[in-house]
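ingest -> validate -> predict -> emit
validate: passed (alphabet ok, no gaps, 156 aa)
predict: started
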Amino acid sequence: MILTRKIALGMAGVVAAGVLGTAGVAAATSSDSPPAPSASVAPSSSAAPQADHRKAKRAKRPLIGRAMHGEWVVKGKDGKPVTLETIRGTVTAVGSASVTVKAEDGFTATFTTNSDTKVRGGGADSVGDVKIGATAAVVGVKSGNATIARTLLVRK
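emit:
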């Protein structure tokens, strides 16, 4: 259970960094981005850097909610690499041993489920309670050609 929490926390940090980094690259390379200001005068107040930091932090929050799917590698508890995969979208299939989710961009991922898969939210207590058409997010660990779902978050 502790490993699952560590994976979830690690995943959240990596997702946040990846989403923010990707969004930053996209904004920097986008042709319709507003031009950068040519010159600015820094305020003389000592509270200005703190206010700027808070404003930047607020601006980044919505980016996390826009992530659709991803894959990344983290260092496992034993020091070996662990590949994590995640997707957020609509549940298109639910079986006794799997769940399939389709992201807004059309990407589809199927995760193997087992007794260790945690199901949270949406009134679902188990994978069998998840309904097709529900909005969900899945986090899984890649193992060979399969991805084993660790957590399935269902939205009401």
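The first helix runs from residue 2 to 29.
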